[in-house]
Amino acid sequence: MNSERFDGAAAGVRETAAQIRGLGRTPGKRPRGWRVFVWPFVLAACFWLQPRLMAQDATAVAATNSVAGTPAEQIAALQLELTNAWQQVIRIVNQPVRAFARPANTDISRYSPGWFHPGASTPDFNTVDVRKSQELIYANEPYVTSDLNPGMVFLGPELEFNAMTKLFYVDRSLPKHKLSEAEMLEINRLYRIIGHSQTEIARLRTPPDAEAAAASPGGTDVDQAAPAGIVGRIQRIPREKRALYGGIGIGALIVIVIAGRLAKRRSE
After folding, report:
1. Higher per-residue confidence, 27 vs 107
2. For residue range 70-82, what is the model confidence (pLDDT) as tens digits?
3. How far apart are CA 172 and CA 114, in angstroms?
4. Cis peptide leading into residue 113 (ω within 30°)
5. Considering only 17-31, 53-67, 146-160, which range has the smallest mean pLDDT?
6. Burial class (CB in 10 A: 0-12, 13-18, 19+), 254
7. CB-based contact 187:179 (threshold 8 Å)
8. Residue 183 and residue 162 in contact, taking contact as beta carbons nearer than 8 Å
9. Distance between alpha carbon 53 and the CA centroid of its chain, in Å?
């Protein structure tokens, strides 16, 4: 992308330069002397334009791949994204289930103690597929209840258990609604957001290796000496400005050479 945009800009500059060279030209005559000064500025413009086009593309890519701002601001934004996704999973998993008064003279399956065992596994939010862990253990039982719900029954085919969503169960005194395919796919998507946010937050909270080594007691005390002289001065110039300064220097050199030739030609 960068090379195409730079080539296009350079082609436009060459076309403009050709038009300038053609102004006032008479067949059989050389162009006027002032036009030769156009080329240094054309060259400097090319050197000035290329790093800026590259910087624009780099900025666009960075904006799509990361959250802008300081590490603290990025962590806050990621934490908000994680919290929003977490709350959406809670809302989907804890949908209300239909409950009915216990009918008389009806066979009812009773679960005890309660509906679920204590605790819950933390899923791998980056890879898990909750469709594979869905258990329809009540599907063959028309009516089910537990010792936590006296006088109430629930429809077995409308219920499920899922070890990979159990972490989000809020009220464990009630069974959980059977999730549809679309709802489980949405949970998978939200899990990926949670996993990505957790990974990025951990990365941002971990200091770079260089800073950790410098802060540790066993870190080295040997510092690299900064280059001296002209090389050191060049290295201290921001990288995006080196091409500009180089173009200006080359342009100035070309101007001096052309001016010298013109002066020599006029003296002859």
Report:
1. 107
2. 999 999 999 999 9
3. 8
4. yes
5. 53-67
6. middle
7. yes
8. no
9. 21
The top-scoring range by mean pLDDT among 55-59, 85-89, 232-236 is 85-89
Does 256 have pLDDT greater than 90? no
Residue tagged 């209840």 (tokens) = 145
Measured from the Cβ of residue 101, the count of other Cβ atoms closer than 10 Å reads 8
| Residue ranges per structural domain of the chain | 2-66+240-267, 71-205
On the question of pLDDT at 128 being above 70, the answer is: yes
Rounded CA-CA distance 223/152 in Å is 75
What amino acid is encoded at 183 in this protein?
E
* pLDDT surpasses 90 at 49: no
Residue with tokens 């499920």: 160
| Residue 120 phi, psi (nearest 5) | -165, 145
Q: Spell out the residues 6+ positions from residue 96 whose beta carbon is closer than 8 angstroms to its own.
A: 177
- What tokens does 33 get? 């002397």
Phi/psi at 203 (nearest 5 deg)?
A: -65, -40
Q: Which residue is listed with tokens 């296009």?
A: 8
Task: Give CA–CA dist 237/229, Å, rounded.
Answer: 13
How far out from the chain centre does Cα 91 lie?
Answer: 27
Q: What's the whole-model pTM score?
A: 0.55
